[in-house]
Amino acid sequence: KRALRRRRKLEKETKQLIKQEELKRLHKAQAVQRQLEELEERQRALEISGVELERELRGEADPGTKDETQMLHEWFELVLEKNKLMRYESELLIIAQELELEDHQSRLEQKLREKMAIDGKSKGILQPTVTDHACV
């Protein structure tokens, strides 16, 4: 009886840990999604500014009071900012992919635990539970 109680307690604790890890991944995924949406908005705004500035440089729009050197400087700043945003987007996409892989690994571990429990019950042997989880 004591061994059975310990096993059930261990299984319950393991399930709680798994649930906590899933929640952490979910919160992190939601944060990444929000950041990607904000990034997309900033990229759109930069694109609009860049198109407008390019028209001014080509003389297709009213240049206003800016000289060509100032406009070129602004254009290069826009290009640098766009490149920075693209690198950040790549980093966020890698984080999102990591989270997907961690989630997939967790589901596979759960299936393994279930199969080990079924195999152990059918053989009449108590199987150890798998408690090794991926680090988040």
From TrEMBL:
Primary gene name: Micalcl
Organism the protein comes from: Calyptomena viridis
Taxonomic lineage: Eukaryota, Metazoa, Chordata, Craniata, Vertebrata
InterPro entries membership: bMERB_dom, F-actin_Monoox_Mical
Name of protein: MICLK protein
Signal peptide range in chain numbering: none
Positions of the BMERB domain: 19-136
Coiled coil: 19-56
Keywords: Coiled coil
PANTHER family xref list: [F-ACTIN]-MONOOXYGENASE MICAL2, CALPONIN HOMOLOGY DOMAIN-CONTAINING PROTEIN DDB_G0272472-RELATED
Membrane-spanning ranges: none
